[in-house]
Amino acid sequence: MNVVQKLIQLSSSEVEYLREASFLPPHLAEIVRSAQLASDGSFSLHVSREVAEGFRSALTDQLAKTGFDVDYEVTGEGRMLEELIDRFYVGDGT
């Protein structure tokens, strides 16, 4: 069976945020540490659907905890988390 890999491109600030994140499980933190620097200054990861969903789950949990202020307005961290959740989306492939 062929495992489909998705290319995820991240900015340096997104990679820094994820590298410093204490909410990622160890196996996901290791994947972030292995991100490859591209010539344009972005970082790239190749992840399976399962790994992408693991990131989305961890990011969604963090968004619920820290992504909104007392008036339920999205914070700066919340906007970054929402963007990352979208970036790690892997469609059904159809």
Keywords:
94 residues, alpha+beta, 3-stranded antiparallel β-sheet, 4 helices, 3 strands, 50% helix
Can you describe what's shown?
The longest helix is centred in the middle third of the chain and has 18 residues, at 49-66. Strand 2 (36-37) and strand 3 form a beta hairpin. It is built from four helices and three strands, in the order βααββαα. It has a three-stranded antiparallel beta sheet. It has one domain. Helix 3 packs antiparallel against helix 4. The chain is of the alpha+beta class and 94 residues long.
Structure in a nutshell:
This protein is α+β, with helices and mostly antiparallel strands. The protein has 4 helices and 3 strands, in the order βααββαα.
Low-confidence stretches: none
Largest sheet features:
3 strands, antiparallel
Radius of gyration of CA atoms, rounded to a whole number: 14 Å
Distance between the termini: 17 Å
In sequence order, what are the helices and strands, one letter per element? EHHEEHH
Q: Shape from CA axes?
A: globular
Number of strands: 3
Helical segment count: 4
Mean pLDDT: 93
Class by helix and strand content?
Answer: alpha+beta
Count of spatially separate domains: 1
Question: How would you summarize the topology of this molecule?
Answer:
Blueprint: E1 5-10, H1 12-20, H2 26-33, E2 36-37, E3 43-48, H3 49-66, H4 76-87
Antiparallel strand pairs: 1-3, 2-3
Helix pairs in contact: 3-4
